[in-house]
Amino acid sequence: MKRLILALAVLLSSSVFADDINLWKKSTLNKILERGELQVCMEPGYMPFEMKDKKGRIIGYDVDFAKKMAKDMGVKLKLLPTAWDGIIAALVTGKCDIIMSGMTITQQRNLKINFADPYVVVGQTIMMKKELEGKIKSAKDLDKPEYTVVTKLGVTGEVATRKFFKNAKIITFETEADAASEVLNGKADAMVYDQPYNVLFMSDKGKGKLIHLDKPLTYEPLAWAVRKGDPDFLNWLNNFLRQMQEDKVVGFSDELYKKWLVDTDWLKRVQ
């Protein structure tokens, strides 16, 4: 009887071990290590997270994080510029290993993909024409038929815009730059978009020309996205992020925050 129980225990443990091996072989992390390259999908048009400099190179907050991630994995980094409306499909179909592109965690996206822990939290704010200063103090004041509000198509800025503005005219654009230009040129009254982008725009092109209502309308955690059913990769990412955020000796996360979200010296590289 004891021999039978022992045999069953050995058989069970062998089966569990085999299952673990199979899961590891299927893991994105294992494939990255075998390939020797981390493939990252991002849309290089979301300042300061990813954008192109004067020489056409992709730079930004997410890019620096991706470089550090690849270095710690001991592999090369390949950035794959991807249109926003197809970026989730690109991940799901295996065209890249991870999305690192300032993506907000939403319940709808989470049905299709999994997210690592948030690496930064932002919210939607409003930039508007200088002529409206004092007249418009909140989203409620702006929600009237005579006003036109713009945002980028297919992002959480559009979701927030349609939530807060039921009476104002809403126009969406393919890029945040086109939407911002519409307000800057006086063709629209206001723009709803992510706080970091609006802060940087106001420190540059919008300075003295637009007004920023900087109190966030929403709570939006940004996170890296991976395919479902991959606990090994998700575990590695969360531990990597925790180390970067909590290790005061390394101080990597704090350095990036200051470099891209506080200082604006990098603007000279993209103008």
Automatic annotation (TrEMBL):
Q: Where is the Ionotropic glutamate receptor C-terminal domain?
A: 37-263
Q: Where this protein primarily resides, as one coarse class?
A: other
Q: Which top-rank group of organisms is this from? A: Bacteria
**Which GO terms of the cellular component aspect does the record hold?**
cell envelope; membrane
Note the InterPro entries from the entry.
Answer: Iontro_rcpt_C, SBP_3_CS, Solute-binding_3/MltF_N
List the signal peptide residues: 1-18
Q: Which UniProt keywords apply?
A: Signal
Q: Which residues form the Solute-binding protein family 3/N-terminal domain?
A: 37-263
Q: Where in the cell is it found?
A: Cell envelope
GO MF term list: ligand-gated monoatomic ion channel activity
Q: Which SMART domains match?
A: PBPb (SM00062), PBPe (SM00079)
Q: Which protein family is named in the record?
A: Belongs to the bacterial solute-binding protein 3 family.
What name goes with this protein?
Amino acid ABC transporter substrate-binding protein
| Species whose genome carries this gene | Halarcobacter anaerophilus
